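R.M. (postdoc): so does anyone remember the format we settled on? I'll just put the structure tokens first.
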């Protein structure tokens, strides 16, 4: 598999408050994230459309790989992404950066000087020449060999020598990041504990749908592969708890911190656990065993195998913090859509990307429940995790279902569906646990 990356976009945020303690090889880290669209003053509808668009772009990327990556993102509309971003610093002295937390990819990268082609960002580009602890990795290094796509650079424009490792990270929406692979010290809170020798990409050419100053500086890969942040910190687990995307409260992410899922759980909530499925041909994704979907009173008439990985590696179900809206294989999406339409008995409104209904004045329709049945754990979504209420320009009330049609047979559980839940990735135990929670109290 090539690729694994995806665009980071949008607004900046908050404070990284965290504590870290390091021993020789392991670390525990507490950081805070913010939703990248928080406070942008978008209407919920605008937010939603952008999320759906983004999810589609992302879904398409999984479908293709390597240099043939492509997806449909209309020019001018490519300002997507509702993502959760973490603040940290790299180098000595530390230079700040803001990276999108992405469990759907491994590589950590940030835009770097000397930029050949970078998008605008609010923070200065990382300047490796100003860091006394930075060093480049040669293409013979094991970290370089872990990359899905790399080459040996000559780096003529810089004083960097021959044989530097050059990575290429592709996005399905034609975005790309190319740069050199290096190591440097990562500091998780200014002036506090740090982790030496973290491998990351210094992005010199970053192009695609990155468009505005509202973007972060790069990505923090939280996937299962060896180059991801959790893998490099050698933690046994990590967890996050996303506060509402439309709110402005910071969200915590904990790496290797003993997590008491009960302490912050909502009253009466039960912790549920489902195994990860290991798929050696794609070591990055957190595959889950999804068995079925229920809309209201109807379990969708699809065999369990619908959501399973095929032998050739197509399909499957993953959980991804970097995708906003859950996407379903097209034929499954149509069944979900039909189920909502027949049970809600409301007029659908025209929308390219979303399933929306006109809500008559004064009506308070009961929305059918939406449940995902995983092996050993049912995710019974609260209303706010799949329904959005809005008004159109003329003041007509609308209600939209926040689920999108994917570009292929893969099912991606996106972050909109993960809000207000404490989610633990137990890497040592090879399982995922989740519980409804008050994320601002974790
Ligand atoms: C790069 O390698 C070539 C051939 O191995 C050598 O002639 C050249 O001096 C090297 N350049 C640098 C900057 O190391
Ligand atoms: C980004 O910000 C800089 C300086 O604040 C400004 O010159 C530039 O036009 C902005 N770019 C975009 C795309 O908004
Ligand atoms: C998470 O991992 C750390 C060590 O990295 C361990 O001390 C802790 O108990 C683990 N927490 C859970 C909930 O498994
Ligand atoms: C992969 O397998 C599925 C079913 O087993 C099949 O429908 C699909 O065409 C195969 N895809 C490729 C690329 O071979």
């Amino acid at each position: 598999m090539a690729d694994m990356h995806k665009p980071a976009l949008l607004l900046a945020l908050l404070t990284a408050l965290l504590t870290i303690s390091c021993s020789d090889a392991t670390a525990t880290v507490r950081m805070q994230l913010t939703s990248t669209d928080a406070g942008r003053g978008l209407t919920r509808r605008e937010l939603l459309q952008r999320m759906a668009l983004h999810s589609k772009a992302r879904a398409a990327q999984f479908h293709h790989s390597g240099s043939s990556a492509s997806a449909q993102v209309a020019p001018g509309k490519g300002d997507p992404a509702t993502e959760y971003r973490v603040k940290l610093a790299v180098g000595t002295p530390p230079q700040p950066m803001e990276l999108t937390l992405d469990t759907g990819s491994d590589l950590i990268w940030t835009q770097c000087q000397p930029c050949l082609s970078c998008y605008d960002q609010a923070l200065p580009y990382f300047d490796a020449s100003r860091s006394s602890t930075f060093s480049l990795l040669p293409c013979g290094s094991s970290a370089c060999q872990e990359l899905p796509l790399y080459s040996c650079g000559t780096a003529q424009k810089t004083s960097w020598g021959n044989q530097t490792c050059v990575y290429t990270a592709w996005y399905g929406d034609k975005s790309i990041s190319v740069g050199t692979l290096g190591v440097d010290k990562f500091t998780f809170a200014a002036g506090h504990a740090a982790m030496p020798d973290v491998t990351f990409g210094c992005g010199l050419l970053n192009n695609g749908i990155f468009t505005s100053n509202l973007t972060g500086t790069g990505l923090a890969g939280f996937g299962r592969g060896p180059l991801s942040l959790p893998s490099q910190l050698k933690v046994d687990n990590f967890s996050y708890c996303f506060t509402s995307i439309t709110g402005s409260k910071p969200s915590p992410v904990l790496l290797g911190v003993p997590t008491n899922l009960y302490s912050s759980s909502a009253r009466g909530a039960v912790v549920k656990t489902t195994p990860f499925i290991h798929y050696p041909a794609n070591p990055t994704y957190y595959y889950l065993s999804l068995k079925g979907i229920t809309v209201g009173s109807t379990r969708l008439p699809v065999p369990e195998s619908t959501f399973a990985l095929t032998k050739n590696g197509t399909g499957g179900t993953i959980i991804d913090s970097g995708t906003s809206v859950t996407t379903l294989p097209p034929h499954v999406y149509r069944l979900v859509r039909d189920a909502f339409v027949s049970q809600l008995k409301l007029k659908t409104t025209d929308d390219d990307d979303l399933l929306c209904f006109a809500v008559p004045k004064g009506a308070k329709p009961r929305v059918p429940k939406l449940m995902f049945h995983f092996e050993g754990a049912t995710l019974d979504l609260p209303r706010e995790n799949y329904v959005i209420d809005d008004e159109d320009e003329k003041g007509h009330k609308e209600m939209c279902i926040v689920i999108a049609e994917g570009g292929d047979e893969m099912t991606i559980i996106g972050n909109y569906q993960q809000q207000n839940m404490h989610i633990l990735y137990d890497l040592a135990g090879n399982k995922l646990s989740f519980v409804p929670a008050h994320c601002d109290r974790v």
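R.M.: ...and that's the designed sequence above, right after the tokens. Also worth knowing: The first strand starts at residue 20 and ends at 22. The pocket of 2-acetamido-2-deoxy-beta-D-glucopyranose (ligand 3) is lined by residues 26, 235-237, 256, 258-259, 424, 426 (CB under 6 Å).
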